[in-house]
Amino acid sequence: TVSVLYWMRSSLWTVAALAAVATAGVWAVGCGEPLQHLDTDKCNVAQCSRRLTGADQTYCVRGRDEGGQCRGDSDCYIHLSCGNISAMSGLGRCEKASGVKVQWKGYLAVGIAVVAFGSNFIPARRIDPGNGLYFQFFMSTAILCAGFGVQMYRGNAFFYPYAMLGGMLWCLGNTLAVPALKLVSMGLAVALWGGSNMMLGWASGHFGFWGITKEAVKVNWISYVGVAFSALGVITMAFVKKSSEPRRHANGLGLMDEVGGYGTSVTSSVADAPPSNPFERVELGEKEDINDYLSKKQQRVLGTCLAIGAGCFFGVNFDPPTLLMDEFGERSRRGMTKYSPDGLDYVFSHFFGIFVTALVELVAFSGLDSVAYLPTIFTAAPYQDLIVPGFISGVGWAIGQISWFIANDNLGLVISFPIITLGPSIVGCAWSVFLFREIRGARNYILLAVAFLFLAISATCTVFAKNGFS
């Protein structure tokens, strides 16, 4: 009995001591838990208080010094971040990043991405890609090869099926992009899907759609102003008209003789004949182009809708891998697969989703093409003419997308996303004005200048909304 009473007294003293310590605030807040009132003295002596990246609260962190092992920023002191996290072990090292070096790397990646996305469809301008499915398949083959290269460089043995969804969404958008290029000018198409891409991407981050972490905004109203100017830019671009051009060759090959910089088509008697029944099954050389069934106004309306639809798919293609990056720690603890906070580790899975979707679409079309009543306007061009242009376009796109992942890691979405989604519009319109001569006339030039002004204001507002004016 005496022993029991002694044990109870000791236990009571222990509980009282723990309560006193907790009241004093030494162990009141555990590692990684938020501080409600910024009471930094409530952190353990082995911890420090800091505001984690992307968070709107201050947390107690372990406070490991430079070179210490970590699984995230919450393991490192306030002046350090957790970098070079391995997808295999989930471990990295606390390090002090050089701001000059990171910014230089990020802005270089942004520049490469802008040029690549604004130019990767140039090979498709000298040939007619038909419905775009064969062209897209050869393009996706090059993209998959680039994904293999990134996977080997990263040494990541894991595959992320959910990241495939982003690639599949992009491929659906690309399916709409090729016919959009045939219906409107290259610059207009790139501008339209760039604008809708930016608006939907902004909404995903601003409101936290699809489960991704909602980004904190310092000046909320500036964010809405930026989106409004982006919408105005898209509307203005829709009034840019493609200059008149000679009729394409009837077999869809688009063979052009350059005369003084302007194209004159190599025509035949078939090209001058009235359009055939679109449901009539004819030989490839007799099939008409889709432009032969639509007026100029109908071409502009349909091309605008397809380009905006493509931009919507493009705008959400980063969301699946972004969600995995946000939840990499929790997901890695739940299963055998090791997730990563580095976007490059999801490149191969993303690109594989593109390849699978392109293959499924091509197989489905090949089956439908055997049906007698398939409209001839959906025919494919001779695939042997599309292999090299498609592969070159795929390499260009892969370079741009990989650069985008790098830019996100070094600059963040708030800077890279507005520039990369809208920058290709400038590059694309420059090609249309100076190389292809598709956009001509003072009216079009004024509209382009106004649209680019709106888009530049939109991108600037987005940056200030995130970082404030200080």
From TrEMBL:
One of its GO terms (cellular component) is membrane. Belongs to the TMEM144 family. This is Transmembrane protein 144. Residues 1-28 form the signal peptide. The keyword Zinc-finger does not apply. Keywords: Membrane, Signal, Transmembrane, Transmembrane helix. It comes from Neobodo designis. It holds the Pfam family TMEM144. The chain crosses the membrane at residues 104-122, 134-153, 159-181, 188-209, 221-240, 301-318, 351-374, 386-407, 413-436, 445-465. It is found in: Membrane. It is a multi-pass membrane protein. The keyword Transmembrane helix applies. InterPro entries: Sugar_transport, TMEM144. PANTHER family: TRANSMEMBRANE PROTEIN 144. Its main location: membrane. One of its GO terms (molecular function) is carbohydrate transmembrane transporter activity. It comes from the Eukaryota.
